[in-house]
Design goal:
With about 260 residues, the protein is of the alpha+beta class. Helices cover about 25% and strands about 10% of the residues.
């Protein structure tokens, strides 16, 4: 009597068919997950952009990008502690801390301040909210002190001439972002070279020419499918943009003639 069961050849055929199906389905599933992360990221940017509108309405100005003017004052201490790592990042109040006064969110991983497509894996940045999430336009969110061209008072909404065309916040290598990361200029992209290897626009082709970014997957390969990123604008809306659309091609760069995307 013939025993029931599969022959070796039949098993091999089944395994081959299953492997083929997995090979076909897996990329589609990965692409679907990537698109889902991009959508969730866009939702985060939309909420943060609207949060800035609320903050500006309440305070008549946007928050500082970074400030440590009153760091010796105990009341200056952010309620959830300083963002970033004191060994690598400046100690003070970041826009994240100030935005919490108008929008309820925390700094823990998974909140709206963390990009779901984040690629950062370096030990010094793995749990650091300042690295690999979202960056604000330093031409609007000024530094309270320092020696860079971005020091001054943060802007008011009325000082942004084209809010629907001006970048407010974007997928970014670092919590502070400026046109310097999008221009081939001899100016230092970040003062004192602090966190210079995180100061970038994800997926920008120009990043491949910067030696400090050669091992940064997020900088070279991009944050979202097809080298796209989410950008929030000063009027509260957000868009999915090609990374190259943020590039400044004019060399040398005339700061008075920066595109409206970067120049309020």
């Amino acid at each position: 009597m013939r025993k029931c069961g599969f022959s070796i050849i039949e098993l091999l055929v089944v395994i081959a068919v299953l492997a083929l199906l997995i090979a076909i389905v897996a990329p589609a599933m990965m692409a679907a997950k990537a698109c889902a992360r991009r959508v969730l990221c866009g939702s985060n940017l939309h909420q943060l952009s609207l949060g800035f509108k609320i903050y500006q309405h309440e305070n008549k100005t946007f928050p500082y990008g970074f400030s440590n003017l009153n760091i010796t004052n105990p009341g200056f201490m952010p309620p959830e502690g300083y963002a970033g790592f004191s060994s690598y990042d400046r100690l003070g109040r970041w826009w994240l801390n100030d935005l919490q006064s108008s929008v309820e969110f925390d700094l823990n991983m998974g909140s709206i301040a963390w990009c779901p497509a984040r690629r950062t894996s370096e030990p010094s940045a793995r749990g650091n909210i300042l690295c690999g999430n979202y960056g604000v336009n330093r031409s609007i969110f000024k530094d309270a002190q320092g020696s860079s061209i971005f020091v001054g008072e943060p802007l008011k909404a009325s000082e942004v001439r084209r809010p629907s065309a001006t970048l407010l916040i974007s997928d970014s290598g670092y919590s502070l972002l400026s046109w310097l990361a999008a221009a081939n200029t001899s100016d230092p992209v970040f003062e004192n070279n602090d966190r210079v290897d995180f100061f970038y626009i994800p997926g920008l082709a120009f990043n491949q020419t910067r030696n400090e970014l050669q091992n940064k997957s997020d900088a070279i390969k991009g944050r979202h499918p097809h080298q796209t990123l989410n950008v929030g604008f000063a009027d509260g809306h957000h868009e999915v943009r090609d990374a190259e659309s943020l590039m400044i091609n004019a060399i040398p760069v005339d700061q008075e003639k920066l595109p409206s995307l970067w120049n309020p």
